[in-house]
Design goal:
The protein folds into 4 domains: about 1-45; about 50-140, Immunoglobulin-like (Sandwich), CATH 2.60.40.1120; about 150-360, no CATH class; about 370-505, Glutaredoxin (3-Layer(aba) Sandwich). The protein is built from 15 helices and 15 strands. It has helices at about 5-45, 140-170, 170-180, 185-195, 200-235, 260-285, 290-300, 310-320, 330-340, 350-360, 400-415, 435-440, 465, 495, 500-505; strands spanning about 50-55, 65-70, 80-85, 90-95, 100-105, 110-120, 125-130, 130-135, 370-375, 380, 390-395, 420-430, 450, 475-480, 485. The longest helix is centred in the first third of the chain and has 44 residues, at about 5-45. The relative contact order is 0.06.
Length: about 500
């Protein structure tokens, strides 16, 4: 090899080494850029993205517009965004989110309503004319179909309501005829969705799934009505065996529909008679196991429910929250059990939110003041009785157990007639005010303070039933002399007559 060749090779080697060094630097820089872009992208996509909904309607100037988003359980907090149509009939709702939503839009007092399909960053424009919607902007086709599907579901619901009583008493063969007829609603609309070439396959499937909810949920509704009827007339909706292996026979869940609030709501109501049947069996057979553990055992017996155990147990706790026995202490106990069994459940936060209402009703918390009207139509409130021990009896003339307890109330009033600091307050929730007045006229010996709360006098937001989480009457509430709750679910008059509980409170 000559010297010139050696020099060439040397320079070539130096060049290669230099290029390799620069390549390493370039790759390093490129990798850093990619990494930074990836991180910034992750940060970007982890943030909520703002959606804008513009509503235009000259028909409802000044009307309120609300968009309600429901996530998870029926008891979970509802996210509500509000606006108002201005004098030109224009309104805008803006909010941020990072997930695809199905939200209920209502204009005015339900003058117009529809479910909207919303994706993060959507810009949806809705014009309402002659009560009918026209969509423009993002997702216009899918939301137009959503409205039509909603109309179809309402038509089908009218059919269900008209035939529910017949379905309950029909033979199995005839019941199947009713169920088969549900599939006939919206046949042409479904064909139109399937043939519409302007819809991508993705959105077509979204629409078909949404369309299918009616046909899936209404049999669940029929079955719930049948089971409830059997519980009332027979005391049970199905004959259970000691192993509880057949407790959820005929009940199943379809995973792809759980994302829809409507489907979750029907799952919730379908489970109500099933849970009641299991608990009735527990009571009738003197089972010592607690209600929570007994329901959990029944769920775990059915393998098809393996993936939904936390959902079903969360719904059971929600049902319990609607019972007369529910209070903060019981709610805490149930939710702690749930947390131990399902520590990673997405429903845990919603259950804890539900408990906040009961926390406001625990002993020692300030009472929820309520206003009512006496027999002369004069308004007064519970706070006007502050300084006394107040025993509130929530009742109605149509409530048999309430009337039965009133006989003990009369005896209770007589027993403590020498204690003017004990105020017996009877709050009726009769809608028929005249019926309530007539009852009091016929029962003059019915001593105590009397008031009524119904839609004639008070807004629902101040109703005793909503403030004190009352789902069944009679209900009794004890308030101390400082206006604080002693017990929002107190003993009945028949129980108080046989112990000295009120005596111990009166000496305080």
């Amino acid at each position: 090899m000559v010297e010139s060749d050696i020099k060439k090779n040397f320079h070539y080697t130096i060049l290669v080494i230099s290029i390799m060094k620069h390549m390493k630097l370039f790759i390093s820089i490129l990798s850093s850029i990619i990494f930074i872009f990836f991180i910034s992208s992750c940060v970007l996509f982890s943030k909520d993205i703002k959606t804008q909904i513009n509503i235009s309607s000259r028909e409802y100037p000044g009307a309120e517009v609300s968009l309600t988003i429901t996530r998870g359980l029926p008891s979970s907090p509802k996210e509500i965004h509000k606006s108002q149509l201005d004098s030109l009939g224009r309104a805008r709702i803006e909010f941020s989110h990072k997930d695809t939503l199905n939200a209920l839009l209502i204009v005015g007092e339900s003058e117009f309503s529809t479910t909207l399909y919303i994706e993060p960053g959507s810009d949806i424009n809705l014009t309402i004319e002659n009560g009918l919607p026209t969509f423009k902007g993002d997702l216009k086709i899918i939301n137009s179909y959503y409205y039509k599907i909603g109309l179809n579901a309402r038509e089908g619901q009218e059919y269900v309501n008209a035939n529910c009583a017949r379905y309950i008493s029909a033979s199995s063969l005839k019941q199947q005829v009713y169920l088969d007829s549900l599939a006939t609603f919206g046949t042409e609309l479904k064909k139109q969705i399937e043939k519409d070439n302007s819809i991508s396959n993705h959105y077509r499937q979204v629409l078909i799934d949404y369309f299918s909810i009616f046909g899936i949920t209404q049999p669940m509704y029929f079955d719930m009505r049948v089971d409830n009827n059997d519980l009332i007339t027979k005391g049970r909706s199905a004959i259970l065996d000691s192993t509880l292996s057949n407790a959820f026979e005929g009940f199943s869940l379809q995973h792809k529909y759980i994302k829809f609030p409507t489907y979750r709501w029907y799952v919730n109501i379908r489970l109500q008679p099933i849970f009641n049947n299991i608990l009735n069996y527990r009571y009738e057979n003197g089972v010592k196991k607690g209600k929570y553990e007994y329901i959990k055992e029944a769920i775990e017996k059915d393998t098809k429910l393996n993936d939904y155990r936390d959902l079903l147990m969360a719904i059971f706790i929600f049902h319990t929250s609607s019972s007369s026995e529910m209070d903060y202490n019981l709610g805490s106990k149930l939710i702690n059990s749930f947390k131990m069994d399902y520590p990673q459940s997405k429903y845990l936060t919603e259950l804890e939110y539900m408990l906040t209402d009961f926390y406001q009703l625990k002993g020692g918390m300030p009472m929820k003041d309520i206003e009512m009207h006496d027999v002369n139509g004069k308004a007064f409130s519970v706070s006007s009785l502050k300084g006394n021990l107040i025993y509130i009896d929530v009742w109605a003339t149509w409530c048999g157990p309430c009337i039965d307890e009133l006989e003990y109330s009369k005896k209770l009033a007589k027993k403590y007639s020498n204690h003017p600091e004990l105020k017996l307050l009877y709050v009726s929730i009769d809608e028929d005010t005249e019926r309530w007045k007539e009852y009091l006229r016929k029962n003059l010996q019915f001593e105590g303070l009397h008031g009524i709360q119904n839609s004639e006098f008070v807004e629902d937001s101040s109703m005793i039933t909503s403030l004190y989480k009352i789902y069944g009457i009679p209900r009794y509430i004890l308030i101390d002399k400082d206006g604080k709750i002693i017990n929002a679910n107190a003993k009945r008059p028949s129980e108080l007559l046989t112990d000295s509980y009120l005596d111990s409170l009166l000496v305080l």
